[in-house]
Amino acid sequence: MSAFLALLAFLAHAGMHPVQVRIPVSGGTTLNAVLVLPAGKLRGPAVVALHGCAGPLPERDGSWAELLVRQGHAVLMPDSFGSRGLGPQCRIRQRTLKASGQRRLDAIAAAEWLSRQPGIPPGGVALLGWSNGGNTVLWTLRQLPDLPRGLFQRFVAFYPGCRTAADTADWQPSGPLLLLVGAKDDWTPAPPCHDLAARFPQLVTLVVYPDAWHDFDAPGRPVQALHGLATPPAGTGTAHTGSDPAARQDAMRRVAEFLDAGTP
Questions:
Q1: Count of structural domains, the chain
Q2: Which of 82, 72, 65 is nearest to 22 (CA)?
Q3: Exposed, middle or buried, 42 (CB in 10 Å: 0-12/13-18/19+)?
Q4: pLDDT > 90: what percent of the chain?
Q5: Residue range(s) defining the domain that contains residue 247
Q6: Which of 68, 121, 188, 205 is 20 to 30 A from 158, alpha carbon to alpha carbon?
Q7: Where are the beta strands (DSSP E) in the chain?
Q8: CA 75 – CA 119 distance, rounded (Å)
C-alpha cells in the first residue's frame, strides 16, 4: 500500500471522512491530496499540511490532521512525491523536487485550491509542514513578488532545516511563524533556527524541546538511528528519530493556540 493510501486508511479508521482530491499545479502535474473536514461548523484558518522527505507518514501526519479537524479546522494534505511517481527522498542527494522550488509552488497551489472551497473561512490559510515540508514552509512564507497577497495567514514548521534560510540575507517572513524543534536533533539541528528567530523576534516564535530528536511528534516511535540519509550536516548519513511524548503533547497545545490566535 502506498503512503498516500495508508494515510487515507489511517484517517478513515480514526473516524474521519477523508476525501481524495486532485489539484492542478504548474508543469502539467496534478497533485493527489487528502481533504478532511470537521463534522460541524468550520473555524479558521483552514490548514495545508506538507509531508516530509519520506512522503506522508500516516501515524504522524494523520494524527495531526485528526487533532486539527476535531478542533474545527479543515485540513488538506497534498502528496508532492507520490503524485509524480516518486518514493521517499530522504536518501536522495540530488532531488528533483526542492523545497524552495516545486514544493513551494505545490504549497501555493494547494492553499489557493483550499481557499476557494465552499464554507472555508476567509482571512487566509495556515501552512504547516514537517522536516522537508517544514523547509517548504520556510521558503513559501518568504516575502517574494509571486506570493499571493493574503493567501497565507500563519505558518508552522516542525524541525525544518533552517541553515539556508538563516544564511540568506534577504530572507524575510511574510507572516507569523511557529518553529518547533528538538535540541537533540542531529538531522536538522536547532542552532540555525535560533539564528533565524533572533533576526525576526516579532514574527518568529521558536520552541526548542531539550530532550527531543527529529520526528519527536510522531506517536509511538522508539528513538533509533537511520543510516544512508542524504542531508545530516555531520556528513555521516546517520541521524536519530523518535517520539518524545511530552514534547508532542506540548506541541499540540501550542499549535492549537497559535492557530486560534489567527481566528477572527
A1: 1
A2: 82
A3: middle
A4: 91
A5: 3-261
A6: 121
A7: 19-24, 30-36, 47-50, 75-79, 125-130, 152-158, 177-182, 204-209, 224-226, 239-241
A8: 13
Residue showing cell 511574510: 174
- For the record, the C-alpha cell of 111 comes out as 492553499
What CATH number is associated with residue 21? 3.40.50.1820
- What are 192's three cell numbers? 540555525
pLDDT at 262 over 70: no
Q: Answer for the pair 241, 224: CB distance below 8 angstroms, yes or no.
A: yes
pTM of the model: 0.97
Q: Residue 2's CB: how many other CB atoms inside 10 A? A: 13
Give the integer Cα–Cα distance in Å for 229 and 95: 13
Q: What is the pLDDT of residues 12-41, one digit of tens each?
A: 899 999 999 999 998 789 999 999 999 988
Cα distance between residue 78 and residue 219, in whole Å: 21
How do beta strands 204-209 and 224-226 pair? unpaired
Q: State the amino acid at position 31 in one-letter form.
A: L
Residue 139 DSSP code: H
